[in-house]
Design brief:
Blueprint: H1 2-14, H2 26-97, H3 105-143, H4 145-203, E1 215-226, E2 229-240, E3 245-250, E4 262-271, E5 282-287, E6 293-297, H5 301-310, H6 332-348, H7 362-372, H8 390-402, H9 414-422, H10 426-437, H11 442-459, H12 462-465, H13 469-480, H14 488-492, H15 494-506, H16 508-511, H17 555-564, H18 609-616, E7 631-632, E8 638-639, H19 647-651, H20 706-711
């Protein structure tokens, strides 16, 4: 499972999103970086999991195996020696008792000496055996429990990390969900515009000239006269109206042909009469570089009209007038209509859920517009009556604004406004849009102020109508701003049009408090060092944690490090609006062993720092391979030689910034107690104390051989 998760994290880390367009929005940047954040999160969890598995071996299994081999195994060797010496002593004693008293005195004395020697060896073996049994029985009380305690510490440290990561992840998750929702809204808006563009392109004739653009380009066929006849050669032509330059690139060029691109300067353009040539859609041009006329053939009649119009041909074709209400003007009647719509919405529909997002009936919208813009009695419609519902009024307002002959924010400033919205610097965005608003014509700026003030009022009731500035930007971005040309590239900029409207709503007070000091847009400043919203949101920008051998860092040092660092690794503070940053964790290192007063018990509900330090010492002796003399801990209990520095702490990263729990604690990590505080002493429940009695001091074991038989668990009954 862990291996599969790590492979999945590697896939997320290497995944790259592809985006259409030259610039990403803030939300798209967050989405593009989200998989890397997920990968780092999974990697950290699995790294800690692998450490926990490793600690199970280092902290639990190996210490218990070492205790069994070194302590219990040594006791078994003592038992064998005791049994061997006992058998040898009693065998010699039996032989000694069968000696005849008639033997020589010297022989009897020698036999007595041998028996005394064996008795001494037997007593020495029995003492060593009993001493070893007692040492094992006493030391296993801590030598067995401490490895289990250390492993549980490792296990709960891993579990605590997952809790901390969850606390870090929740703010990031909420911010990313907002980015996903905003991007989905932009997608829906752009998709509607693209579908409309696709529909118009299917219905309209194929054109090669963009409205408002001075250049026309496309394929034309040129009549070439040769000695053996006439042929038509296909060229790709580009005409620049201001310079009257025509570039012609041959498309059917044969290998080895010397003919290349032609650069010509146009003198005149005349439509070719149909009865004068056997080809359709032809027109003649004259250039400075060539004598005579050049006959060109367009791809269709509509295409020929576009070429002749661009070249100022003698027969320009006027465009067919559009039906009523497909183009309207920004005049007094229009201002009256907008004000009446705003008053109606704010009077009876400002708290309606989805106001401006819900679409009204197209028949009712046309009926309202025809009635209001009737040339006989313009503006003679009461929108406060019950004849018109809110959906019809809001849809009519959007229809009017969208079908103005020129959008409220004008074609002229469209490109500059989009470039301002694409800037990564938030201060520049606001300053540039502020300046560009005051470059609008007076009536356009007045209309824009009227509309944005209304949208601010609507957004103030977002709890009821669920319409935030971002949602309003999606609705009114294409309405107040639109590109002059209908292209896919222009449609991909709709999301930046939405951002412009969103900025106008959020900063309405500042923008319309007065023009900036300099009405020109400020230059783009260098990238800001501090964290801004244009940088991707992160789960946290925590530094990599070191893995110290001892709990040696002081509280003051860790606190100083925390206050000197920002989420992006520097001490500067960001300016302006920022998204909510994930809370950062910080775990205080445990105090050094012996740092508190000797003998002071731990405070209520908190572990003794000395006990944590003892647990941390558990596996330091593992690489040593031998038994070291046992030392005494601060509480007077003989410390096991197996207690040394924990590999868990040697492998764990440095403490990371954290979330404060209740006062004085960080996520359950005890706050070091000052020497002046008096702790509350609590003890675990124990059995009732024994009645007081006088216990005689036991004699030394050497003086009481009879104690040997009562203490040694496996001593022969003959003793």
């Amino acid at each position: 499972y862990s291996s599969a998760v790590q492979k999945f994290a590697q896939t997320l880390q290497s995944f790259q999103f592809d985006f259409i367009g030259d610039t990403l929005t803030d939300d798209e940047i967050n989405i593009a970086e989200s998989f890397k954040e997920f990968a780092e999160l999974l990697h950290e969890v699995e790294l800690e999991r692998s450490m926990m598995v490793q600690n199970a071996s280092d902290l639990l299994i190996k210490p218990l195996e070492n205790f069994r081999k070194e302590q219990i195994g040594f006791t078994k060797e003592r038992k064998k020696k005791f049994e061997k010496d006992g058998e040898k002593f009693y065998s010699m004693l039996d032989r000694h008792l069968h000696l005849s008293s008639k033997k020589k005195e010297s022989q009897l004395q020698e036999a007595d000496l041998q028996v005394d020697k064996e008795r001494h060896n037997f007593f020495e073996s029995s003492l060593e055996y009993v001493y070893q049994i007692q040492e094992v029985q006493e030391s296993k009380k801590f030598s067995i429990v401490e490895p289990v305690l250390a492993f549980l510490h490792s296990l709960f440290t891993y579990n605590n990390l997952t809790v901390e990561l969850t606390q870090d992840f929740l703010p990031y998750k909420q911010q990313l969900q907002l980015s996903l929702q905003n991007t989905r809204n932009h997608f829906s808006s752009t998709r509607e515009e693209l579908e409309d563009l696709k529909k118009r392109m299917k219905e309209a004739p194929l054109t090669c000239k963009l409205p408002g653009q001075p250049t026309i380009e496309g394929y034309l066929y040129t009549q070439e006269k040769w000695a053996l006849g006439i042929s038509w050669v296909k060229y790709y032509c580009q005409y620049e109206k201001e310079a009257k330059s025509l570039r012609m690139t041959p498309m059917d060029q044969k290998p080895g042909a010397k003919q290349g691109t032609l650069d010509l300067t146009l003198k005149s353009c005349v439509r070719r009469k149909t009865d004068s040539i056997d080809k359709r859609f032809c027109f003649d041009i004259e250039t400075n570089e060539r004598s005579g006329t050049i006959t060109l053939q367009a791809l269709s009649e509509a295409n020929r009209r576009l070429w002749m119009e661009a070249m100022d041909g003698k027969e320009p074709v006027s465009l067919t007038p559009l039906p009523l209400f497909e183009t309207v003007e920004l005049n007094e009647v229009g201002f009256k209509f907008v004000r009446k719509c705003i008053n109606a919405v704010e009077t009876k529909g400002i708290t309606t859920e989805g106001v401006y997002r819900t679409v009204g009936s197209n028949i009712q919208v046309q009926k309202l517009l025809n009635a209001f813009f009737d040339p006989k009695c313009p503006g003679d419609v009461d929108l406060q009556s019950g004849d018109w519902d809110i959906k019809t009024i809001t849809s009519s307002l959007k229809f009017y604004l969208r079908n103005l002959s020129e959008p409220v924010m004008t074609y002229k400033l469209h490109k500059e406004l989009v470039l301002a919205a694409k800037s990564e610097n938030l201060d520049y965005r606001l300053g540039a849009i502020h300046a560009l608003v005051y470059k609008l014509p007076d009536k356009n700026r007045e209309m824009l102020e009227l509309l944005i003030q209304h949208l601010v009022n609507v957004c103030e009731h977002s709890r009821e109508n669920l319409m935030s500035p971002s949602n309003m930007g999606v609705i009114f971005g294409p309405t107040l701003m639109r590109a002059q040309e209908d292209t896919v590239a222009a449609m991909m900029n709709i999301k930046f049009q939405n951002i412009v409207v969103e900025i106008l709503i959020e900063h309405f007070g500042k923008i319309y408090s007065g023009p900036p000091e300099d009405t020109t847009a400020p230059p783009v400043p260098p990238p800001r060092v501090a964290a801004r919203r244009h940088k991707p949101i992160t789960i946290s920008k925590r530094p990599l944690r070191e893995r110290p051998v001892f709990f040696g860092a002081s509280v003051e040092e860790s606190g100083a490090d925390r206050h000197g660092q920002t989420p992006n690794g520097n001490g500067s503070s960001s300016v302006g609006a920022e998204p909510p940053k994930p809370l950062h964790r910080s775990r205080l290192p445990a105090p050094r062993p012996g740092g508190d007063e000797p003998g002071r018990p731990p405070a209520e509900g908190r572990p003794d720092p000395r006990a944590e330090a003892d647990v941390g010492k558990l596996v330091a002796r593992l690489p040593d391979g031998g038994v070291k003399p046992a030392g005494k801990a601060a509480n007077g209990v003989v410390a096991s030689p197996a207690l040394r520095t924990s590999t868990l702490q040697a492998k764990r990263p440095a403490p990371r910034p954290g979330i404060y729990g209740r006062e004085g604690e960080y996520d359950g990590v005890p706050k070091p107690r000052s020497h002046g505080d008096k702790p509350v002493i609590t003890r675990p429940p124990v059995r009732p104390p024994d009645p007081p009695c006088r216990t005689p001091v036991p004699p030394r074991l050497e003086q009481r051989p009879d104690l040997i038989a009562g203490t040694a668990e496996e001593m022969p009954s003959s003793v």
